[in-house]
Amino acid sequence: MKKTIRLNNNWFYNPDYNESMIKNDDVSTFDKVNLPHTNIELPYNYFDEKMFQFVSCYKNFFEVSLSEDEKLCARFEGVMAVADVFINGHFVDQHLGGYTPFEYDLTPYIKNGDNVLTVKVDSRELENIPPFGGQIDYLTYGGIYREVELRIYDQTYIKHVRIETLNNHETNKAVLLHMSAVTDKVDCKATLDVKIKNQLGKQIKSLEVVLNLNKEQESYDIQIDNVQAELWDLESPNLYTIELTLTTENGKDHLKERFGFRTCEFKADGFYLNNRKIQLMGINRHQSYPYVGYAMPKRVQEKDAVILKDELHFNLVRTSHYPQSKHFLNKCDELGILVFEEIPGWQHIGNQTWKDVAIQNVKEMIERDWNHPSIIIWGVRINESQDDHDFYTSTNELARVLDPTRQTGGVRYIDNSEFLEDVYTMNDFVLDGGETALRDQKLVTGLDRNVPYLVTEYNGHMYPTKRFDCEERQMEHVKRHLRVQDAAFRNENISGAIGWCAFDYNTHNDFGAGDRICYHGIMDMFRVNKFAASVYKSQVSPKIDPVLEPVTFWARGERSIGGILPLTVLTNCDYITLSFGELKTFKLFPSEVYDGLPYPPVIVDESIVTVEDLGEWGMKWEDGIIKGFVNDACVISKTLSKNPLPTYLSVKTDDLVLNSNEKDATRTVVSILDQAHNLLPFFDRPVTIDLTGPAKLHGPSVVVPKGGVFGFWIETINKTGIVDLTLACEGLAPVNIQISIV
Ligand code: GAL
């Protein structure tokens, strides 16, 4: 494109749509909003899911001046769920489906000078588009919840480019560009200038190619040889940028795309990245947040990827159950976390119109995301739907035509399902507390041979667990996550397992705990860890991140019958020591029960420590001191207080500098800690949040912590200045945080 104009500020929004709004530009009854925007802010829980299911209107006034040959398009990254786009009162087009981008040509009705873009947004659950028509275990929210931009093109321009990398494992690699260009001419001489740059912006290759463009031809293949570049991998996610300039006698067009060199393949004996076998340890992510649903800006989307890769050390995330924000995917590329991306849907398959939208979703998803090295597989089935030969033959065929470099999968929960994909991707919920943690693949597939196989969900509804549940339940939650991963690591023919799920999420009343929340996360909705998060966090070398997480509130009377045995300590240390006050110290080693895992936990049970050692009911309770050792050196320790008292109001804000030019946001986590800096899980005095300055708080300003913690986000409002946040709670010293909005 020649030029882009970001269109995320100064929208006018009216939640009561009526037809006269298309031609009438009086916005006196509208609110001024910025994108990403949710059509209604929701309570944290216990709300009616119909609250966001309505039709609303958005308007944006912009000025533009186009020369005769120029064309102006509007690109929407995501509008839930149906968008009717109008320019200066004229209907342009309608987009069905809330998870994929669309771009419409506005030129025929554009005026030089002032223009008004109007979008009618229907956020109802309309049964002719996925994922609607049946029950869904998540909410879809509403509004123009991702970004919008205007794009100016000349008559001849590059529509998109798919970048295929070749000879990846040789020093001299190659890049094959599949470029789609648009021209209205039959024989249009063009030169294409290609530049490849590394992450530091250094040019590593340049080339000029002469092309004859033709309006009848869709795509042009251009190969660039002798590219000396580094591989993209989990530990070293090297990225490159390709810059294309297409010059014709009618002008110039530019396109920039980021990509990486890597190979990936699911085989019957596992998953290979760059010819190296990698055990996939993944988690499912819903893109929702408290109060604002899906409408979170770039920084917050990126933070989720940071949490999953850098904090919890997953090597894979599944974007259940739809294509997610480009910012999240970009960050996955940058951090080196693999992605399973899939089309929108949940169990239900609708009529032909519905299926046509699903097929369109395959196209929109792949064309948006084919250059992300992090994406290793396309999910081309509706999550957990029944077999449908013709429908899934079409989705698979389309995916393979659009992108022959990636394998397809399609998540099912039925056994013996027709295997039309390249990878049999299965939600295996067999673990109900009994003997079996995961089934052998042949039992599931019904095939007489092993095929590429990946477990795409486990746990979830089988054992919902709140971060503020009692210790016994949280122990069992931890155990189930340990058991499934241990089983996956032990089974040669399972590429890996993806847990359900990263974060608790709001859902329909047909699911969840009755309060519109599914407590299936290993973190809560504020992205605060439950104990189970440390099952994953501890599967990394202690040199990178030493982990020591005893699954206990350290109290004699929290569990039934009392005591703390058996005690699971999630750790990656060689061994630990546990001291009970000054009375006794034990040296304890990782458990053989879970030695399929890279770093099994330590399980302290009565075979090692007797109930008497830790004192029986009626005796004195002592501090617990736990130390983790690597190569006989103590690398981490924790004191668990016998006499925990509210001592600190801990306030941690993810970012202390935010942007004012467009909507930006950051999270703050507030915890109530004892003298030894451990959470006080049953603390229930309210905390007040006092915010002054140019930002807006999501959610209430008085909150009672749950499980000793709560979180909140603040968002910027296009003004610079200092935001002053003061957190106060009776009996604790208040905390003040200042955030600069620049
Ligand atoms: C699966 C489904 C998920 C979620 C999960 C809960 O059946 O694919 O979306 O509902 O169950 O365990």
Write up this protein.
With 742 residues, this protein is mainly β. The radius of gyration is 27 Å and the shape is globular. The chain has seven helices and 48 strands. It folds into five domains: 3-153, Jelly Rolls; 157-249, Sandwich (Immunoglobulin-like); 287-449 and 457-534, TIM Barrel (Alpha-Beta Barrel), CATH 3.20.20; 548-640, Immunoglobulin-like; 648-741, Immunoglobulin-like (Sandwich), CATH 2.60.40.10. Helix 1 (298-311) runs parallel beside helix 2 (326-335) and helix 3 (352-369) runs parallel beside helix 4 (389-402).
List the helices and strands and how they pair.
Blueprint: E1 3-6, E2 11-14, E3 31-33, E4 55-64, E5 71-76, E6 79-80, E7 82-87, E8 90-96, E9 102-105, E10 113-122, E11 143-144, E12 148-153, E13 157-166, E14 172-182, E15 188-197, E16 203-213, E17 219-228, E18 240-248, E19 251-259, E20 264-267, E21 270-273, E22 276-278, E23 280-284, H1 298-311, E24 316-319, H2 326-335, E25 338-342, H3 352-369, E26 375-379, H4 389-402, E27 407-409, E28 424-427, H5 441-445, E29 453-457, H6 471-490, E30 496-499, E31 505-506, E32 517-518, H7 533-537, E33 548-550, E34 567-571, E35 575-580, E36 584-588, E37 602-604, E38 624-630, E39 633-640, E40 648-653, E41 657-658, E42 665-673, E43 687-692, E44 695-697, E45 702-703, E46 709-716, E47 721-729, E48 732-741
Parallel strand pairs: 23-24, 23-30, 24-25, 25-26, 26-27, 28-29, 41-48
Antiparallel strand pairs: 1-12, 2-3, 2-4, 4-10, 5-9, 5-12, 6-11, 7-8, 7-10, 13-14, 14-17, 15-16, 15-18, 18-19, 20-21, 21-22, 31-32, 33-34, 34-37, 35-36, 35-38, 38-39, 40-42, 42-46, 43-45, 43-47, 44-46, 47-48
Bound molecules: beta-D-galactopyranose.
Residues 137, 320-321, 383-384, 413, 427, 457, 460-461, 500, 520 line the site of beta-D-galactopyranose.
